[in-house]
Structures are given as C-alpha cells and as structure tokens.
Amino acid sequence: MFNTILVVCVGNICRSPMAAAWLTEKYAQKHIESAGLSALVGYHADATAQEVMRAEGLEISKHIAKQINEQLVMSADLILTMSSNQTKWLERQWPHCRGKTFRIGHWINKDIADPYQHDRAVFETTKKDIVDSLEAWNKKIS
Prior knowledge:
Layout: E1 4-9, H1 15-26, E2 31-36, H2 47-54, H3 70-75, E3 78-81, H4 84-93, E4 101-103, H5 120-141
Parallel strand pairs: 1-2, 1-3, 3-4
Helix pairs in contact: 1-5, 2-5
C-alpha cells in the first residue's frame, strides 16, 4: 500500500507541485510530497502553473520548492518521476529506491514535458498529461 508518495521533477516549481496537488485532492488520506532534482529551493510554484491549477479548483500558491534528499526518498512508499531519465538518476543516486520509483506516465508510456518558461498552452498540455498519467495509477494507489 502506498501511504507516502513523493513526486519529483527538476525544479519543483511546475510539474511536481501540479501532480502533488492533484494527488492530494484525490487521496486526502495519503501523505503527498514533491521535490526537485535541481530544485529552485525557496521559490513558489510557477505563476502559470498556479493559474492552470486554480482553473481546476486546486491551489498551489503556497508551495515552496525543495531539493530531493535521502530522507524524502527513504520515507516514500512510491516515487513518481516525470521522465525515464529522472527515474534512472534517482536509482543511481539511491539504489535502494529501485522497485518503488516509476515514471508518472509509466502505465501510458509517456514522459511529462517540462513547461517551464513556455506559454500557457504548454502548461495545459502538461496538466492533461499528468492527469492522464495519474488516472492510470488509480487502481494501484487506491
């Protein structure tokens, strides 16, 4: 059973906060965290990411980016990354996380593109890809 889920992207200001907000809304009883491989530590979620999520009724304005660390990796039951390369990086950094680290788009065979510094349409596509990916995880997470 996955009670603690860690969502990972690069900067922890776009994709992982978006996915974490969706997971928190859907699985309120679970502990959801997000972090970045090269986090923009201390920054709020990207303004466009906030707008896109607010349109869905989800608020990420209070999100503060944080760097992934061994404590977060150790405490997670499931780690979801945005790309195969991020999964490989985590497994090289912390070999003990193999078997609990997967690409968020694992079940639909998709990497989630980084919308950072792109227009709103790219953020909308990213949101849709995240939601589609997480829907495919539903039976495994529930």
